[in-house]
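Hello forum,

I keep getting stuck at the same step: I have a sequence, I want structure tokens, and every attempt I make locally crashes halfway through. Rather than fight my setup again tonight, could one of you with a working pipeline run this one for me? It's a single chain of 125 residues.
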Amino acid sequence: QVQLVESGGGLVQAGGSLRLSCAASGRSFSTYTMGWFRQAPGKEREFVGHISWSSGITYYANSMKGRFTISRDNAKNTMYLQMNRLEPEATAVYYCAADRLSRYGVTSRSGYADWGQGTQVTVSS
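Reply #2:
Ran it on my machine without issues. Output:
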């Protein structure tokens, strides 16, 4: 089990940048795959990318490559999502999630068992 709390959302101008944080706690999360998803109004929850907590190896949705970067700080038990060149279409609630099976390349919502409450990102034009 892992507890996840997102923070860092807010209002951003188009073309700007924002860094989201996901604070993790609980048992064995250091062996998990940790992911980011987003959900825009009226749309399905969408995979952004994930990171292996132990190795730092990342995996991204094709549409996110070059725009979003995932990292983690082991000392702070925190995962980050750096978002650059933001567009209004990126407006969504952003969630962090944990895959207890520590898999690589899993993009479906059902592949992640533990979720945070989300943080709102709004990109204005």
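The first strand starts at residue 2 and ends at 7. If your local run keeps crashing, start a new thread with the error log.
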